[in-house]
Amino acid sequence: MPHLGSLFIEGGVWWTGMTDDGFFTRVASFASVVRLSLNDVTFPSTTVFARFVCALEQLEELYCVNIKTVKKRTGRELFLPLRHSSKLSHFTLVGSQVHDIIDFVVASGLSQRLTDLCLHVGSVDYRSFAHLDAVAYRDLFSACWSLRTLHLQLRDAAVAKTVSPDTGLGTFTCHAISGRLCRPDLHASFCVARYLDLDARHLEILHLSVEPHLYGDYHFGWIATFLSQVCSGHAVRELDITFDIQGETDEIAHDLLLVRLSDEADLSGIDRVLASTRYAGLENVEVALRVGHVESRLIKSREALWAERVHVQLRSVESQGILR
């Protein structure tokens, strides 16, 4: 199939006997594939996954959703094949215990030309997140020399079953661990801001999405901490922060969450960070509240009150005329 542009594989377990040299030779014959989507696929090892990706020499977009590797290999254990210069510009990774996949992306040089990066981190225990996946993400950020757009979704929800280029997830999304999954003595900022330290010098667009009620307080100090650690802040032109309340189907439960959010939210720390010279290049800031499942006049009135408080608390940003 010399003219195949997109390859989508969903479900299934690949066994070692299925992936001999002849298999990878056949994969390499898909010379025009620029987009690869893998959903719920289990590979016998990280090496097999790596060889499969490397066989597609024209690959520009890689979407990996809930993929698993039975034998996890990193570093020299990967036995990476010699490859051409990477053309990969977009990478989506959804799932947990994927440190070996991330290590491959870094070790192979695939990360160097990435401009859009999309990571959804599934719910895992604190120890696994802190010592494996989280450290791998930090290494990945350091290796993304050309990163332009970063989307972070910080919530404790089931990871997406499928991701396609048409779902609007075509940039970077990190579905990170929520504060309540951390050890009780550790603030959410320890899990997020420390381990997702960003060193992308060319970052221009930064989108954050979080379910605020999962963190136990609405002072959002961890967001301010994270923003203060973005080394390329002076290059960021667009910042979008969405507080996403979803998962509740009861109107009363939604209302209680919105009452707390409206009464207790403190965005002053975020305002101070955005007013610093680090973010002197900002042209557009949007802070939104998205409420799922329930539509009512009461909910709408709470949203209006929230929007009013946002504009009051982000005074410095508002004074620059860039708050939407």
Structural write-up:
It is a single chain. The chain is of the alpha/beta class and about 325 residues long. It has a domain of about 200 residues. The chain has ten helices and twelve strands. The strands form two sheets. Strands 1, 2, 4, 6, 7, 8, 9, 10, 11 and 12 form a ten-stranded parallel sheet that branches. Strands 3-5 form a two-stranded parallel sheet. Helix 3 runs parallel beside helix 4. The longest helix is centred in the middle third of the chain and has 18 residues. About 10% of the residues have low confidence.
Distance linking N and C termini: 47 Å
Helix-and-strand structural type = alpha/beta
Helix content: 25-40%
Shape: elongated
Provide the fold topology.
Elements: E1 6-10, H1 21-28, E2 35-39, E3 42-45, H2 46-55, E4 61-65, E5 68-71, E6 90-95, H3 99-107, E7 116-121, H4 126-143, E8 149-154, E9 175-176, H5 188-194, E10 205-210, H6 221-228, E11 238-245, H7 251-264, H8 268-274, E12 284-291, H9 297-313, H10 315-319
Parallel strand pairs: 1-2, 2-4, 3-5, 4-6, 6-7, 7-8, 8-9, 8-10, 10-11, 11-12
Helix pairs in contact: 3-4, 5-6, 6-8, 7-9
Structure at a glance:
This protein is an alpha/beta fold. Helices cover 32% and strands 20% of the residues.
Keywords for this entry:
324 residues; single chain; two-stranded parallel sheet; alpha/beta
